[in-house]
Design goal:
Elements: E1 2-7, H1 13-23, E2 29-32, E3 35-40, H2 42-51, E4 57-66, H3 70-78, E5 91-98, H4 106-125, E6 130-131, E7 138-145, E8 148-154, H5 176-186, E9 196-198, H6 205-214, H7 236-248, E10 257-261, H8 264-277, E11 283-287, E12 303-306, H9 314-334, E13 339-344, H10 347-351, E14 359-365, E15 368-376, H11 393-409, E16 416-421, E17 429-434, E18 437-443, H12 451-469, E19 476-481, E20 499-504, E21 507-512, H13 526-535, E22 540-544, H14 550-557, E23 562-567, H15 570-582, E24 589-593, H16 596-602, E25 607-612, E26 617-618, E27 627-628, H17 629-641, E28 644-654, H18 663-668, E29 671-675, E30 693-699
Parallel strand pairs: 5-6, 5-7, 9-10, 9-12, 10-11, 12-13, 18-19, 22-23, 22-25, 23-24, 25-28
Antiparallel strand pairs: 1-3, 1-4, 2-3, 4-8, 7-8, 13-15, 14-15, 16-17, 17-18, 20-21, 26-27, 28-30, 29-30
Amino acid sequence: MFEFLVTTSKGLDELLAQEISALCPQLSVKTKPGQVLFSGEIEQAYKICLWSRLANRVLLKVAEGHVDSAEDVYQITSSVNWTSHFSVDSTFVVDFIGASHCINNSQFGALKIKDAVVDQFNVLFESRPSVSKIAPDIRLQGRMWSDKLTVYLDLSGQSLHQRHYRTKTGLAPVKEHIACAMLVRSGWANNKTVPLLDPMCGAGTIAIEAALMAANIAPALKRQNWGFNRWLQHDATLWQSLLTDAESQIIESDTVICASDIDHGVVSIAKENADAAGVFSAIQFNTIDACKVTPVKGQSAGYIVSNPPYGERLSEITALLPVFQAWGANLKEHFKGWNLSLLTSNRDLLRSMKMFAHKEYKLMNGKLECQLVNFALDEKNCITREVSLSNNDFANRLAKNLKRLNKWLKTENTNCYRIYDADLPEYNVAIDRYGDWLVVQEYSAPKDVPAAKAKRRLHEVIVALPQCVDVPSEQIVMKVRTQQKGKSQYEKVSQKQKTLEVFENGAKFKLNLTDYLDTGLFLDHRLTRQLVQQRVKDKDVLNLFAYTGSVSVHAAIGKAKSVTTVDMSNTYIDWAKENFALNNLKGPYEFIQADCLTWLERHNNKYDFIFIDPPSFSNSKRMDTTWDVQRDHVALLSNAVTCLRPGGEIMFSNNLRQFKLDEEGLGKLGLSIENITQKTLPEDFKRNPKIHGCWVLTLNV
């Protein structure tokens, strides 16, 4: 009689216990999270290895003991007669799980077990087995729980979920044992003669596992490499008899199993995997949008089981919410009487389908916490519920904003402007329009607002926007607005490279709506740029912290004598050059990549007009020191004054809301001060008067 531990993903232990009891009715099992334990014979362990669709590993206990010190791990392991389990010419590896007060590092725990094993072989044979992490003959596992260590021999070798038919996978594939759990929890596994459909099949795992179930094919029947192949107590005759018996139990199945996906390449991968699993002919594959799938005429109602995209990123959620809405509408229209089971880590996505869940199960898909949600497509769930915006506070406020802005826009010469800026605290986003695109920036939710509630409000915004603003969901870009520090101010947040040309008061600008937190144009400085353009004719202009050079473009359009553009980022300097080319601006225009602070300290040229719009704070590695606009603005402006001709102007701006200009310090520099903040606030930013501050500082003659 041996003691065994069978592992699985958390949330599946009860299902695994039921499966083991069905395979081996004579066993008495008990469960722990992600584990099933029992005492039995090696035949039962072999049977679970061969037939379990839900297990990860089958472990044979070889030692157990109390641990007060690291030396106890060594002694417990040494108590095993390892020569009865494998030979000196075998390779092995040790895995270690858990920790205690004396073993707080899994590598250290594994090392103590390994040392005990090899020392025993050295004493007996003056030779030792080799450690191999790649395809070892024997895999051992130490599991520490509180102060108790249990040492196991892994009979499965590789995890049992690896059926070895998946030659390729799509994005975020579901593991094979999770797919089986979905089929069991959905109810289909107990009713395998009715149709099964996966309309977002990806690599085809769910359909393939269903086909193996329907044909009663043992999931590990074709597996060649096992943890017990080189185990000295392996009963090869018994194992072969179990294989022969499993082959005799395969049946012909006429169950209709359909798998489809919108991506032709992914469907091709699913077909290859099904062929490798030997069930290609049992599955009907198709390339079609899930929102357009309908049952085959004359087909009886069955089960839809799928692992749709979760939308882990905001940009993905923007695209997925309308997809789930359309999918829900299609299911209600065409699949009445069917059962629906969906795996998700984003429950709110499923809520957009406007259906009532029948049952929900928590489980882990890899390291991702997920829910399997079951729906019955009955009369109640097949009622189409129109999404009305008439009672939606956000939609109502947005409509008022648009009505007000439409009058103002008739007098403006731009196609990029703000339409909403956290007007309602519970909808904490800013929304900017750029031509036919929207950029939605989610501000970090206040600490007293639950994350789930903030997420739901954001989803309401995403759902309402296409209808309110008449912009398709695929042209809505989502971002999270957090404080940017140091190098992160310049780092990409995406790689989509969605560029767009916009216009503003006679200028054109190239924007990137996706790859950076900012798009390339600060909309709150629209009037500021106009003022610059009006003040710089025949003047030498310096633009510091220039970003993508939008102020420089307006200065050049305003017929400045010369324009010098300085920024720390090569990316932004190149971007500024592109903006000049876009406006066909050629002349005495200089572009300099440098740390603006150190560059200005060493610079000797003179200018008539200097524009300075620095960040609030920076600790970038590209700078020689940290920068704090409140602390350092006088020193910065002091250096700027040395480059300013008598009577020249500095237009100084920043967006630190608590900023206070040191008027006394600037007065000592010979500067007169005019606060022009109100003159620089565009109509679309007036409800947020602290969006920036702006001053004109004139060097007294």
